[in-house]
Write a structure and sequence with these properties.
- This protein is mainly alpha-helical.
- The chain has one domain.
- Helices cover 55% and strands 0% of the residues.
- Helix 1 packs parallel to helix 3 (50-63) and helix 6 crosses helix 7.
- The model has no long low-confidence stretch (mean pLDDT 84).
Length: 137
């Protein structure tokens, strides 16, 4: 069972978030996994949001700059928590999509996520991001 987002230009979304090097770890220092979460992260984006989603994502990232910088500094590659193997998604481009969806459609994101990938990755992000609605146990 996979989530199909092929009809949508996901490369354009990824290109939009990669414009923010201050929110991303350098490719050589990123943790595993490599890109396997983008489709799951994008699956809660409704069809009527597709056309303007890259712009909405840019607004989200720009609006949360300080928070994202702190997240990367505190939990990204090279941090003490990351040295223990946690927070593998912090600093990855697709994480900006995950965080935006965590704020926008948390229940749908959690539902799709639990069907597709290990919840520990989402749980870790939710813990350190502190969204308005906490969905994990």
């Amino acid at each position: 069972m996979g989530i199909d987002v092929t009809e949508w230009d996901t490369k354009g979304v990824l290109a939009a978030v990669e414009r923010f090097p201050w929110a991303l770890a350098s490719p050589g220092s990123r943790h595993r996994p490599d890109g396997e979460f983008l489709d799951v992260a994008l699956s809660p984006v409704r069809a009527d949001e597709h056309d303007g989603y890259a712009e909405s994502l840019v607004e989200f990232v720009e609006g949360h700059r300080a928070r994202l910088e702190e997240l990367l500094r505190a939990y990204g590659p090279g941090s003490k928590p990351a040295a223990h193997g946690r927070y593998a998604l912090v600093g990855r481009p697709e994480t900006l999509v995950i965080l935006e969806r965590m704020e926008t459609t948390p229940f749908l994101l959690r539902s799709r996520w639990t069907r597709e990938v290990e919840t520990v990755f989402l749980d870790d992000l939710e813990l350190v991001w502190g969204p308005g609605i906490r969905l994990s146990r």
